Amino acid sequence: MEPLIIALVAVFALTVGFVAGYFIKLKVLSKKGEEIISEATNKAEIIKKDKILEARENFLKLKTEHDESTKEANIKLQRFENKLHQFESNLNTRKDELQKRVKQIELKKKEISAIRENLTLQIEIVEKKNIELEELYSNQVDKLESIAGMSKDEAKTQLIQSLKDEAKAEAMQQVNEIIEDAKLTAHEEARKIVIKTIQRVGSDIAANNSITVFHIDNDEIKGRIIGREGRNIRTLEAATGVEIIVDDTPEAIVLSSFDPLRREVARLSLQQLVADGRIHPARIEDIIAKTKKQLEEEILEVGKRTCIDLGIHNLHPQLMRLVGKMKYRSSYGQNLLQHSIETAKLSAIMAAELGLNVKLAKRAGLLHDIGKVPEEETDTPHALYGMQIAEKHGEKAEVCNAIGAHHDEIEMNTMISPLIQICDGISGARPGARREVVESYTKRLQDLETLALSYKGVSKTYAIQAGRELRVIVASEKVSDKEADILSYEIAKKIQKEMTYPGQIKVTVIRERRAVNFAK
After folding, report:
1. Facing residues of 511 across strands?
2. b/e burial code for range 115-150 (CB count within 10 A of at least 16 → b)
3. Phi, psi (5° rounding) for residue 220?
């Protein structure tokens, strides 16, 4: 029994100790919880104060921005009101000026009406006086005719004839004086005439149509160019497409080809080979390849430089390249690039005079013969082919039409098109610009002389100044001075109607009568 009681007492004691410990821990935890809550409350207060301060700062910032925007709006509104007041003031001023002008116009109208009435009265008076003067003049003429015994037309004819005879005599006297003076200064005048003639004929001539002469220092180089068994010259001809003629001509080799570009490649390649001294097939092919590349670069550079000089911008690189290729093309002996540049400048000047688009006219003038430097063989006329190239590379419709219509292949639908046609003709027709085939040139001169010989009284004809002047000598006993003037006019009209020629032809009719006597 006692052990049981002792056990119960022990269990009770343990239970009491456990409960007491529990309450002690509970009290400690409650104290910590209060501390945590107090700390959280303090942090919440701090966060709250920070948020309130931040909200106040944002409010003040927004308020400041609002005030500034309001201030700017007020300033703009004030400026607008000031402008409005100024505009209203100007409007009132103009209104007053307009009213003054209206009053002035009304006064002018009244003055004009008065002047018109006065003029009407004066015109009526003048008409009446004219009628009276005509009647008086008619009466006076009738009286003079009755006194002179001849009509007015007869008197006029007689007076004109007497004036003609007097003028002829004075003219003959002046001619004789000029001849006598010319005899004294004949030598000096002859020298001047010769110098002027040389200057007139000495125009710049384009490169030959089919040959280029390559000059060398000595004839030993000819053998090296030919090579062993002709290997070098065959390689040159095959690579360039140019016939190389090595003959007995001293210090010269002839390059023959219809294509100026090929001749230029051959010339430049030979120049480098001769300067280098190493001439063999492999070296020849290498030099020719490099020369072609250099020439292509030069062609593009020439095209760019031409466009810059003329002030033409945004031209397609391919068109620019074709412009550069014109440098190595000629038409009737006239360099194609120079012809195109001249046409462009003429077109720009004419367009400015007519009030047309100068830039488009200049562009069309430069590109009008672009079809003469094709990249491939074609049977299309060069004007139409050039138009197709321009359309392909994005040129404007006005430019394309001017290119295609400058030889009347298509209908002209812009004002620039006839302008380009005219300027093309001017550039090609000026004296010395183009050469003709010798046979056609000779035939044209013969036809010119034959045409003048067909007239009655013509004894001799001479076509001089490269066909620019025709001198016609007539028999003095068959053709009078008056008939000589008429003959000159008729020959010029017939030449203009029946013949085709560049530029203009001066027709000079010479009538000479010699009186020869001998003093014995």
Report:
1. 474
2. eeeeeeeeeeeeeeeeeeeeeeeeeeeeeeeeeeee
3. -65, -30
pLDDT in tens, 446-476: 888 889 889 988 988 888 776 788 889 898 8
- The DSSP annotation for 467-500 comes to GTEEEEEEETTT--HHHHHHHHHHHHHHHHHH--
- Record the pTM: 0.44
Q: Quick one: pLDDT at residue 161?
A: 74
Contact (Cβ atoms closer than 8 angstroms) between residue 403 and residue 386:
yes
Which tokens hold the place of 47? Answer: 């966060």
Asked if residue 279 lies in contact with residue 225, where contact means CB atoms within 8 angstroms, the answer is yes
Structural tokens at position 502: 């560049």
Q: Would you state the structure tokens that stand for residue 512, as one six-digit string?
A: 């000479």
Q: How far apart, in Å, do the first and last CA atoms of the chain sit?
A: 213
Q: Measure the CA–CA gap between 241 and 266, rounded to whole angstroms.
A: 9
Q: What is the 3-state secondary structure (H, E, C) of 299-368?
A: HHHHHHHHHHHHCCCCCCHHHHHHHHHHHHCEECCEEHHHHHHHHHHHHHHHHHHHCCCHHHHHHHHHHC
